[in-house]
């Protein structure tokens, strides 16, 4: 299928709970890894080897294949330089790009505002899941949050189309009161109006979709199928977001963590295959990140909260390769038993904002940061 010049889009997969860096990108040739983790480790003969030092978790075959196609950037040692082991605070830092203060706006919310300053397209940013991640939150910026694209919409259970139309008209009138009388009602009116506009537009996406790719049945893969449906419908969406949970592996880590990465890898594999089938693989970058890594030493069953992590950027337009150094496991190089971050996360945000979304990064990431060479020019 031939391609046309379209604007690029960003897909974000948030791994909530603190993904274990060491069991994702495994330093299988380093004896300190196995000494520190006599129980919670990946045997060297199971690792999907990248080079003589590190390899992927064995449950990441699709991502391994994309790596060999030069479509995966591995961002080592990513984080921020004063680590915080609180899930909430650490994720808040990633979401707002504010390590030293409490941020009021999400970095992607600010990006969406810059992409669509007049708020003309309520589908510029979409979250697939429940609630709204703080990364997308920004006053005055509409973002759709979709639980199930197949049933998404206002009053979708009303089967009689005429009755549904009357109900929608009533909803529109209820939220269309005269502006300026009450700030709360103005806000509710805008929110309700945005929901009304976005809901029925999104309902058309599955009807327009055709693909030979059979996505895996788990929730993450189905969310990414929904992303593909919206992307291929050309509704002007530039930012797609979803959350994959349960990475807080204090106990029973190995089977849980392996299962989670099997889901991520299969979902990314299905999605990128769909992009390729539709001639769109160079138009989308997929960012995978977590709020922090986990301790170097295991606790006998799992690993506790740590610092220092790994992120991935995946896509046809990505400069595949290793970025940054894998942090040292030597005791003298650790930070309170953790891997020491050596790669500011805003150096990853910057090229994504500038080269994928076409925006001015400093105003969004709160400063000037050296941009990693993640995107092909």
Structure description:
The chain has 377 residues and is an alpha/beta fold. It has two domains: 9-151 and 213-365, Alkaline Phosphatase, subunit A (3-Layer(aba) Sandwich); 153-202, no CATH class. Helices cover 33% and strands 14% of the residues. The chain is built from eleven helices and twelve strands. The chain has helices spanning 31-36, 61-68, 87-96, 107-115, 161-174, 183-202, 205-208, 219-232, 253-277, 346-356, 362-365; strands spanning 9-15, 25-26, 48-49, 55-56, 72-79, 125-128, 144-146, 239-244, 284-290, 309-314, 321-323, 343-344. The strands form two sheets. Strands 1, 5, 6, 7, 8, 9, 10, 11 and 12 form a nine-stranded mixed sheet that branches. Strands 2-4-3 form a three-stranded antiparallel sheet. Helix 8 packs parallel to helix 9 (253-277). The two termini are 22 Å apart. Residues 181-192 have low confidence and may be disordered.
Keywords:
nine-stranded mixed β-sheet; Alkaline Phosphatase, subunit A; alpha/beta; 377 residues; three-stranded antiparallel β-sheet
